[in-house]
């Protein structure tokens, strides 16, 4: 299952979050008009896939917002199973 969340961050940036789930999180992708180095985005995606608060700094999006959206995707996925 793919859960896609498109939202506007509290800082006003558009964020597209995709969570790939097969009984557990397989992968998380984050894109949008926020600012961050590619390595920081990859690190944030890795942290989110492990349900951890991203330690990397992405300008324009709060890490807690991202983690909350991933957790909501998991809830949706568990209701469908």
Primary descriptors:
globular, alpha+beta, Lipoate--protein ligase, Enolase-like, domain 1, 81 residues, 28% strand
Uncertain ranges: none
Q: Strands across the major sheet, in which order?
A: 1-2-3
Strand proportion:
25-35%
List how many beta strands DSSP finds.
Answer: 3
Q: In angstroms, what separates the terminal alpha carbons?
A: 10 Å
Alpha-beta content class: alpha+beta
Percentage of residues assigned to helices: 25-40%
Rg to the nearest angstrom? 12 Å
Question: How is this fold's topology laid out?
Answer:
Layout lengths: L1 E7 L5 E8 L3 E8 L5 H12 L13 H18 L1
Antiparallel strand pairs: 1-2, 2-3
Task: Describe the model.
By secondary structure, this protein is an alpha+beta fold. It has a single domain, classed as Enolase-like, domain 1. Strands 1-2-3 form a three-stranded antiparallel β-sheet. It is globular, with a radius of gyration of 12 Å. The model has no long low-confidence stretch (mean pLDDT 93).
Compact overview of the structure:
The protein is α+β, with helices and mostly antiparallel strands. Helices cover 37% and strands 28% of the residues.
């Amino acid at each position: 299952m793919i859960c896609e969340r498109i939202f506007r961050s509290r800082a006003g940036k558009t964020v597209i979050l995709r969570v790939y789930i097969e009984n557990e999180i397989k992968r998380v992708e984050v894109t949008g008009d926020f600012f961050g180095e590619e390595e920081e985005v990859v690190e944030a995606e890795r942290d989110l896939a492990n349900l951890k608060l991203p330690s990397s700094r992405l300008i324009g999006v709060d890490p807690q917002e991202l983690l909350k959206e991933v957790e909501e995707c998991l809830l949706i996925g568990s209701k469908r199973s």
